[in-house]
Amino acid sequence: MINQHSLKMEEQIMYMHAFQNTTVGMAMVSLDGRVIKCNKAVSTILGYTEEELTNISFSNYTHKEDIQRSYKVINESLEGLRDSYQIEKRFIHKNGEIVWGLLNVTLIRDAEGDPLYFLSQLNDISDKKETEEKLREMGKQFQLITDNSLDKISKHALNGDYTYVSPACVNLLGYTQDELIGVSPLDLCHPDDIAVLEKHLTIVLNQGEFHKLTFRMKLKSGEYRWFESAGKGIIGENGQVTEILTFTRDITHRKSVEERLRLNEKRYKSLFENNPDMCFIVDLQGNYTSINKSFEKITGYTYKEIVQDGINFRFLIEKEDLKKVEKHFAGAVAGNVQRYEASGINKQGRAIILDVVNAPIMINNEVVGVYGIAKDISKQKAAEAALKQAKTQLESFIDNNVDPILIFNKNGKLLKVNEAFETTYGWSREEIIGQDHLHLELIPEKYTEKVKINLDTLKSGAKFKGIKSKRKTRDGDILDVDISGFPTEDEKGELNGWAITLRDVTEAKLAEEVLRNSEKLSVAGQLAAGIAHEIRNPMTAIKGFIQLMNRDKEFSSRLKYFDIILKEISRIELIISELLILAKPQDVRVTQADITSLIEEVAVLLQTQAILNNVTIETEFENNAQLIFCEKNQIKQVCINFIKNAIEAMPKGGLLRIKVSNVNDKGINIQFIDQGFGIPSNLLKKLGEPFYTTKEKGTGLGFMVSKKIIENHGGSLTVQSEENKGTTVEVFLPLQRSSEVDTNTHNLMEN
Ligand code: ADP
Ligand code: MG
């Protein structure tokens, strides 16, 4: 008994201990809801002491929203509908926090079956509840992501059928979520992609996931588009895949970009491969890593020799150019595109002139090599050199041509003139180049029509030669020219301009005229000489008879007539003899002559012409006789020239004064002072030039010959003139020895 009793005691202590120390809350609760007895755990869970709990109803520390439910199960127990119940409910801890509890309640009845009290067990399940809450929250978020994902997120059964599809399927495929549930992606897949899809289904089942599957799916519209999927198996409790999760996106756009890229790459490759120019890539050391067919063809080396054997570009560059190429290579390596010309050497050792472009190859902002394109310009260079040579030849031909040459472009603008043009016509290149053909001052106005006709000939592609015309110099002189012209062509054979040659024929023409004139003069001279003879003979007879008659008394009353007749006859004789002196080629003899009487003789000769022109000749001599050594006839010629010029300058008459004066015993001065129309100052310098004349029947030789004669006598000549006032021609002749006089005037014309 004792043993039994003590055992019971021990048991009781044990239960007591367990009751007090378990983490499970235990309590006896009265039928009206107050705690009768409870363990520590209940106090810990709810925060109230046992004593406090015995004084308040459970409803005081039950969450408001759970009170209703609590009463419901309590009543059901009391009504005998159930003996025990289990309920999850919220308590309010004494500090106000919510505590989730799992409550197991058993209604204890007495022997009669009447309810005595409730026996409650309380577990704190707040932690569990919190986790659940979090999970639910996560689920919500997951749903949110899934619903709003642009990618289609789906769940599949193990055979692949959709069990869930995110709303993105509407946008991506055109199907509603409901339409897809129970459907297999295999049914939507492009026939060509079924195999790859099946393969990935196996992969996800065996390996748990796949990262990338590219395939086409048919949209509801019937169109196929490219998609990319990743899949993941969801592992169940048994460690096996129970479900498949997939993420799918439309990559049609990316695909087409990729496709284009691939095409581009192909194109570039073909551009490289089939480029008619040499294309190559070298690494940073300058070793070839890639070359094209043209490279092989132009250099004569094979791909193997260049790339596989690892040749360096420096090996193929001519020595003199190496420094330059090295510089450009460094430039390309530094990231800058280079263009230059360089000489390479082909396999046969021959030089090839190359036009090279080098560009850096950049990967992630770093130069990893150099790309090159080189054009073989050897032929072009040779042609250029030949062309340049031809051009220089042509230019020197034009520049050094004795005939003036003008070159025009096809619009008639003057492009070029040569030196002969500049010296003949007086315009410098700078002044005249760029002017229009038809507006050149060179062309006298009345010839413009002719020039137009010539231009039409040239523009039609034909040439002309030796057309006689006249051209004007910058100073206004008119030159006789033979014009030739020919059209010029460009390299395509099209007219691009024309060239004009102006051959100056003025001098040739003048020489002809001089010949004609001198012939005329000499004929006139001969005639005059003949006539003079013919007149002199009858004149001698007449003179003799008049002298005879003079002695006859019969005529004594007419004596004064005889005097006049004799005087006039003497005068005729004088004129005739003067004429004869001039007309006949004379012996050249330097003698001492009296200039005053020489001038008087000449004046007599020209008196008739003077009277005809209403000109009075006055002579003023400082001394009665002025002796100098000279060729008398030549000095006479000089005086005749100047007197004639003076008379011709006074068509309306006037006074011509001839003054002879001494110059400090050094020589004499002869002045011919007229009141004629004078000589414009710009034309004064022309006096003494051969053939310069303003007279219709003039020769333009008088002045020149006179000047020459005076110079040969050691003298000099000056002319002063004022327009419409008159001209003074002043001749100085020195007193000199006969031996110093140069009488050679035969070559006057040639000077
Ligand atoms: P030509 O008398 O045959 O014309 P010249 O050599 O004697 O040739 O004279 C050249 C030109 O010089 C003349 O045509 C004339 O224009 C000009 N000249 C010469 N002397 C005079 C003068 N005294 N007064 C005006 N003009 C003159
Ligand atoms: Mg004259």
From TrEMBL:
Q: Which reaction does it catalyse?
A: ATP + protein L-histidine = ADP + protein N-phospho-L-histidine
* PROSITE patterns named in the record: HIS_KIN, PAC, PAS
Which residue intervals define the domain PAC in the entry? Answer: 85-137, 211-263, 338-389, 465-517
Quick check: keyword Cytoplasm in the entry? no
InterPro entries assigned = HATPase_C_sf (IPR036890), HATPase_dom (IPR003594), His_kinase_dom (IPR005467), HisK_dim/P_dom (IPR003661), HisK_dim/P_sf (IPR036097), PAC (IPR001610), PAS (IPR000014), PAS-assoc_C (IPR000700)
Under Enzyme Commission nomenclature, its number is 2.7.13.3
CDD domains hit by this protein: HATPase (cd00075), HisKA (cd00082), PAS (cd00130)
Q: Where is the PAS domain?
A: 11-81, 159-208, 264-336, 390-461
Q: What sequence ranges are listed for the domain Histidine kinase?
A: 530-737
Q: Does the keyword Nucleotide-binding apply?
A: yes
Top-level EC class as recorded in UniProt: transferase
Q: Which domain of life is it from?
A: Bacteria
Q: Enumerate the SUPFAM superfamilies for this protein.
A: ATPase domain of HSP90 chaperone/DNA topoisomerase II/histidine kinase, Homodimeric domain of signal transducing histidine kinase, PYP-like sensor domain (PAS domain)
Q: Which keywords does the record carry?
A: ATP-binding, Kinase, Nucleotide-binding, Phosphoprotein, Transferase, Two-component regulatory system
The protein in question is named: histidine kinase
Q: Which source organism does the UniProt entry give? A: Evansella vedderi
